[in-house]
Amino acid sequence: MSSLYLSGPSTLLPWAQHHLVDVTARPDPEAETALFWHIPKSGGTTAKRLYQCMGQTLAHRVGADPRHGHDTDSEIVVFEPHQGKDWKVVNVDTTIKSGIIRAKKLGLVQSHTTDLIFTMEPNFAGQELYDEENKGRFLALFRHPVERAVSMFYYLQTATWERTYRPEWANMTVMEWASLPNSEVDYMVHKLVGKPFGEIVDETDLIIAKELVRQRFIVGLMGEMNESIRRFNVVLGVDEDSERSKNCMVEFGLVEEPKVETPAVTEDGEGTPESERRLEEDKDHATDKKNSNKHPKFEEGSPEYEAVGAKNRMDILLYKYIETLWEAQEEIIESYLSDEPEEDPKDVERRETAELALLPPGAEVQGPDISTVLMDKIRGNLANVDDPIQGRDTETPFFWHVPKSGGTTLQRLYWCMGSTIANEVGVNPKFGVDSSELSELVAFSPWKDNPGKVINVDVCTNSGILQAKHRGFITKEEGQPYVDFVSTSEFHFASMMLFNPDHKARMFALFRHPIDRAVSKFYYLQKATWEPTYNTRWAKMTLEEWAIRDRGDNNWMVRNLIGKPHSHELNYDDLELAKEIVRTKFVVGMMEKFEESAHRFNLLLGIDESDPQNQRCMEEFVSNGGDSHEARNKNKITKKNQFNSYAHPEAERGSPAWISLAKIHMYDNLLYRYIAELFAEQRSMFDGAKVN
Fold first, then answer.
1. Are strands 78-79 and 89-90 parallel, antiparallel or unpaired?
2. For 604, how many CA atoms within 13 A lie in the half-sphere containing its CB?
3. Distance between CA 259 and CA 61 in Å, rounded?
C-alpha cells in the first residue's frame, strides 16, 4: 500500500493510533482481537447471530447474564450458555461501559479467548480493552442515518422487550417526533469521538470520526450485507467453505443455495417457536423478524426525511464518506487474499485508484487537501499578532513550547511571579487533585513555597486536549478558573480543539537555532530514562554518529506548524506557509535573547515588572539567558525534574555533525533565519511600551 493512503496530518485519536491495527495491515486473527461496533438498527444483530451460528466465540451481553452463573467470576471463562447449541460466549458484557471496565480488569483481550467482541461503545472499548501489545481491529455495518433513525422510531413504539421502549411515541407522526428534543442526534459521530450526548458535535469532531473510520475500520453497509459479511469473514479468518459456514450463510440469506433449516436463537440465546425463528430474506440481506419492523420509507426531499436529516447533519456527512470508503476498501480486502499484494504489477493501477478515494477526510482530488481545510480552521482560531489584546473572556494566551528552547525556564519564571499555567502538571496524581472526565475545573497551587498555580487539565497530549475540550476548558461559560496562559508543544491539535473564532488563542513562543536544539535534545535523551522518547541506543553514541541521519524528527517546527507528518516530504510551499503563520499569529522570542523576549511576553501577559517579587523572579530566571541555575548545572542531567538546562558539548559550526544536521533540518533552519528577522521587526511593537 502506497503512502498516499496515509497522506495528510493525522487527526487520529491517540488511543486508536496505539491500540488498533491499521486497515492496510494484513489480518492476523491469532495476534489481534476483532471488535464489532453494533450500531442500533444497522444489521448488527444479524451479524451477531450469524457468527454465533458459525461457532465463533463472542463477547456481548449474554455472557454476563446472571442466569448462566459466570457474571461474578474473577477470571475469563468461555462457556456454552445453552447446552447443545454449540456456540460459546465469554463471561463479560462488552456492550456497556460498566461491562467493559469489568472485561478490562479480567484481561479479556489479553486472554486471547475471543473471536469477536460486540459493543455499542467503540471509543470507550477501544481505549480500555486494548493496548500496544494486544491490538484490535474494528468492524462495523453502517446504515443511512435517516433510515436508521426512522427505523428506531418505529421500532421503539412496539419493542416492549427493550429498555428504551417508548409507548408514548405510538401515536406520533415522524414530523412530530422529529420536533422533539432528541439526545441521540448525530449518534455515530458522538460515539466515535466519545462525546456525551447533549453536547453538540461540530466539523472538527466529524474530521476525527472520519479519520478513525478511514484508518481503523473495515466498513460494511447494511444495504450490501452479502459483500459486507464476505469482507468481515476474510478479516476474521472464517472458512466459508466449511459445511457449518455454508449452512449458516444459507440460513441468513447470504448465499443463493437451497435453504437449510438450522435452529435460530433469540437475543438471550433461547430457542424460539418455528414461527419466530424463521428469518426473512430480501434481495440484499436477511434480518430477524423480531428485530426488524416494517414501516413507511421516506425519500430524500420529503418533509419527513429533511426534518430527521437536519438533526443528523454530521452523521449524514460521515455516512457519505463511508460509502466512498466502502468502494475503495474492495482493493484493500483483495490485497489480504493475495500472496504478494504489493508486488503484483497488474493490481498497482487499480489499487492506487482506490487509494485516491481513501485520502484523509476533507481531501478531494480536485479540491483543497486536508491540510488546507484544517489550516483555514486553525488560523481562524488564532488572534492576529497586530490585533488589540482582548480580555480573557474572548482570548487566552497560548505559549507554543518548542522543546529544548527555554520553555521550561520561562514557565518557572511565570510560576515564580504567581501565574496560573495550564500544561500537564495539573494532572500529576501526586498532587491529589481530581482530573477525571467529570471533575470540576480548578486552579490550585501544587508547591508549598511557590505562588504559581496550575489547572487540573493536561493540554500536552492529544488525549488530554480532547478531555480538556470535553470538560469545557477555556470555552466553559461558567465556573471557568482564571488561566494566564496555556503551554503545550501540540500547536496544531490544541489550536484546533481548544479554541474557536469566538475565543481565540494569542500566540507566543521562544525559538532556538534548530541545530542547537537538536544537539541539546540528543544529550538530554541519553540520560532522561523517564522520557517516553528515551533511546538506549543513543546513550553510547557520539554526537557525530547520531547526527549522520534523520532520527524521525526532521524539521520539527515547520511540520508542527502546518501539520504535515514525517511520512511526507516538505517543500518550499510548506516553508512559506509556516512563515506566514508565525508572521501573522506569533509574538516571537529567541532563547539567545531571553531577557528581551521575556520583557515582550510580560507586556503581552500584563505582568507588572515594577513589582518587587517579579523583579526578583526576573533576576533569578532571566539574567543568565534562560538558565536560572547556570552555576549549578555543570554536570549533565541525571534525574527527573533536575534543572532542565545543563552543560553539554556543542556542535561546532562547519563540523561534520553541524553540516549533517543542517541538511536534515534545512527547512527549520530557513524558518529560524526568518524568525530572527521577525524578532527585530517586532521590536517596534514593544519599544517604549510599559506594563501597568
1. antiparallel
2. 29
3. 29
Residues 415 and 322 in one domain: no
CATH code where residue 556 lies: 3.40.50.300
* Same domain (yes/no): 272, 412: no
Q: Which residue has the cell 435453504?
A: 259
Burial of 439 (0-12, 13-18, 19+ CB in 10 A): middle
Cell 517579587 identifies what position? 613
Residue 50: inside a domain, yes or no?
yes
Asked if 659 and 510 sit in the same domain, the reply is: yes
Nearest in space to 558 (alpha carbons), one of 586, 531, 582: 582
The string of pLDDT tens digits covering residues 151-205 is 888 877 776 776 677 777 777 888 888 888 775 789 999 999 998 888 888 877 8
320 with 414, same domain: the answer is: no
Same domain, 401 and 325: no
- Determine the average pLDDT of the residues in 603-625: 88
Q: Which residues contact 494 (CB under 8 A, 6 or more apart)?
A: 398, 459, 465, 486, 488, 505
For residues 323 and 412, state if they share a domain: no
Task: Quote the cell numbers at residue 443.
Answer: 486552579
Q: Is 82 exposed, middle or buried (0-12, 13-18, 19+ CB in 10 A)?
A: middle
Cell of 519: 544537539
Question: Is residue 415 situated within a structural domain?
Answer: yes
Q: 550 Cβ partners below 8 Å, 6+ apart?
A: 664
Which letter does DSSP use for residue 441 in this model?
P
Task: Give pLDDT tens digits for 14-58.
Answer: 788 889 999 988 998 888 999 999 999 999 999 999 999 999 999
Across the range 314-319, mean pLDDT stands at 93
**Whether 491 contacts 400, CB under 8 Å:** yes
**Can you say how many angstroms the Cα of residue 585 is from the centroid of all Cα atoms in its chain?**
26
Total domains in the chain come to 2
Together in a domain, 590 and 556: yes
How many residues are there in the chain?
692
| Residue 349 predicted with pLDDT over 80 | no
Is 619 inside a domain boundary?
A: yes
The set of cell numbers assigned to 204 is 472538527
Question: Residue 425 to residues 312, 443, 532: CA-CA distances in angstroms?
Answer: 38, 11, 16
Q: Between the CA atoms of 615, 621, 625 and 631, what dihedral angle is there, to the nearest 10 degrees?
A: 120
86, 65 Cβ separation under 8 angstroms: no
User: Domain residues for 404?
Assistant: 382-419+484-686
Structure confidence at residue 492 (pLDDT):
87
Residues 6+ apart with CB under 8 A from 614: 417, 607, 608
Report yes or no on 477 lying in a domain. no
Instruction: Clarify whether residues 342 and 490 are in a common domain.
Output: no
Angle at 145 between CA 142 and CA 148, to 5 degrees: 80
- Who contacts 529 (Cβ-Cβ below 8 Å, separation ≥6)? none
Do 473 and 454 contact (CB within 8 A), yes or no? no
